[in-house]
Amino acid sequence: MGSGRYRPWLVETASLTQRLQSRSTTFAVNTLALKQALPAPDAASLLGISSRHPALMREVHLLCNGQPAVYASSVLPQSSLRGAWRGLGRLGNRSLGSMLFSNPRVSRAPLSYRKLTAQHLLYRQAVAHIETKPRFVWARRSVFHLDCAAILVTEVFLPSVLSL
């Protein structure tokens, strides 16, 4: 994979939120965006939805000791905002991961990984609010399932995560 020091973070299958909390003095979620938008074609395909129908898009920074450690982006189809997950659209500054991992009925598809450089849109979104821009970042994503609902979660690991 060539991910070096990021590898332990990329392959972690337990709650990323809990791991970040256990390695930092303070932990917070900073909501960057919450909007209805058309999902990217690859995201729509992973979720089994049409890329022509808006989904709820949520972007946050997971802050450890006051520094952005992870940029997380979620795609929540309208159909997934009902039933057991109806409150996901109103998380505010609470962690999505804390809700996903607190329900034993939630399953997770395998993680996929990618190294991102400045040419990639996700890289630019992830580093937009940090001062020092790294040459690259590592990202992972997976789909969470509960009953017939699915949510795509993408996490981009920023350089400060390596000091935790």
In brief:
Helices cover 20% and strands 37% of the residues.
Note the main attributes of this structure.
164 residues, alpha+beta, seven-stranded antiparallel β-sheet, 7 strands, 37% strand
How would you describe this protein?
- The chain is α+β, with helices and mostly antiparallel strands and 164 residues long.
- The protein has five helices and seven strands; from the N terminus they run ααβαββαββαββ.
- Strands 1, 2, 3, 4, 5, 6 and 7 form a seven-stranded antiparallel beta sheet that branches.
- The model has no long low-confidence stretch (mean pLDDT 91).
Distance between the termini: 22 Å
* Helical content class: 10-25%
Number of strands: 7
Uncertain segments: none
| Global shape | globular
Radius of gyration: 15 Å
Number of helices: 5
N-to-C SSE string, H for helix and E for strand: HHEHEEHEEHEE
Q: Give the structural class.
A: alpha+beta
Blueprint of the fold:
Layout: H1 7-11, H2 16-22, E1 27-37, H3 41-47, E2 55-64, E3 67-77, H4 96-101, E4 107-108, E5 112-117, H5 121-127, E6 136-146, E7 149-157
Antiparallel strand pairs: 1-2, 2-3, 3-7, 4-6, 5-6, 6-7
